[in-house]
Amino acid sequence: MKNTPFTEKHIALGAKMAAFAGYNMPISYTGINEEHHCVRNNAGVFDVSHMGEFMLKGENALDLIQRVTTNDASKLTDGKAQYSCLPNNEGGIVDDLLVYCVEQNKTYMLVVNASNIEKDWNWISSHNTKGVEMHNISAHTALLAVQGPKATEYLQQLTDMDITNLKYYTFAKGKFAGIDNVLVSATGYTGAGGVEIYFEDKDGASDKIWEEIFRVGTPHGMKPIGLAARDTLRLEKGFCLYGNDIDDTTSPIEAGLSWITKFTKDFTNRNHIEAQKKDGVSKKLVGIELLDRGIPRHGHTIQNNDGKEIGVVTSGTQSPTLNKAIGLAYVASEHAAIGSEINIMIRDKAIKAKVVGLPFVA
Predict the structure, then answer these.
(1) Mean pLDDT to the nearest integer, 145-149
(2) Three-class SS of residue 214?
(3) Stretch 238-250: mean pLDDT, rounded?
(4) What are the backbone dihedrals phi and psi of residue 122, each rounded to the nearest 5 degrees, phi first?
(5) Mean pLDDT across the stretch 72-88?
(6) Amino acid 16: pLDDT
(7) Contacts of 70 by beta carbon, 8 Å cutoff, 6+ apart
(8) Domains (ranges, CATH) in the chain?
(9) In this structure, what DSSP letter does residue 166 have?
(10) Which of 183, 204, 332, 336 is a good FRET partner for 245, with 20 to 30 A between their CA atoms?
C-alpha cells in the first residue's frame, strides 16, 4: 500500500486510516458529521495526493485532448480549467478528469482519479499518434484541497497570488508558503468553495506547506478532513464519483453529463453518444430522497409500486446538512421525472422514496 507525503501526519493526528485506491488514506479524524460541517461552514484540509497528474506538451497536445475528451478544451485559455470525461469505444466512461490549460495550445495538465492512473495513461497514450510529449508526474506531485467558504481568506496571507478573487475553474501559479512553482486552483469536489494546491513533493515542500496552512487556519477552526466527509459533501452537490455513479458501462448522457459533452468537435465514440443525446436513453442518473427510515447504499435495487425492478442505487448517505437520507441512482427513464415515487430495497424491505432535483444542497 502506498503512502502520500502526509500519511505520517494523519496517523499522528489520530486519523482512522484505510486503504483507498491503493493508498493508506485518512477516512475520518473526529467524525464525519463534524468534519462535514467544518467544510460547509468554515474550512477544512483534504489530502488528495493520491490523485493522478499528467502533463501533455507540444503543438499537438490540444489535438490529443480534443480527441480523447468530451468537453471542448479549445475554449481554455491560460489559467483556466474544465471538467471533462474520457469516453470509451462502447459508450461508457474511462474516467472523469480535470483539464488545466497551463499554456494555450502548448501545455496542459490532466488530473485523473487515483484508481485509474495506469488505465488512463494507457488509454491516452494509445491515442497519441502525433508525438505529444507526455509526462506522468503523479508519483511526485502533492495535492491538498483546502475547501470551504473561508478557505481563501485564511490562505491569502501565504501568497502574493490573488487567490481570494480566483473565479471558479481558474488557477494561478506562483510562490505559496515560501515554496516556488505552486499551482493554486479554484476547484474541488465539495461544492463548498476553496482551492486545490498542487506542488512538487521535494526538499521539504510538503511539510512546509502543510504546517503553514494549519498555522494560519487552526486559530480560525480549520481542521484536517477525511475522505468520508469528502464523499458526503460531493454527494450533497450531486457530483458523480467514478466507480459508483459513472464507470465503463455508463454513458455521459445517462449520467447527466451532457453539459460537458460538446458535439462541435470529433471525439471517441462521438456518433454513438450523439445518437443517445438525440434519441434519448433508457436509464438516467437521478437524485433520490427517502421518505421512510433507512439509508440507500451502492447496489441497492429500486422497484416501482408494482414490485418491478426499475433501477439501482449508485451512492447514498445520511446528509449531514439536510438530516435526510439521500442518494444517486440510475432509474428507467419513465421513472426519472422529479417527484416520481419509487421504492428502495433495503434488507428485502421496500422503503418509500422519491426522485428529487439536483443538487440536494444549493
Answers:
(1) 98
(2) helix
(3) 98
(4) -65, -40
(5) 98
(6) 98
(7) 84, 85, 86, 87, 252, 257, 260, 261, 262, 267, 273
(8) 7-49+139-235 (3.30.1360.120), 282-362 (2.40.30.110)
(9) P
(10) 183
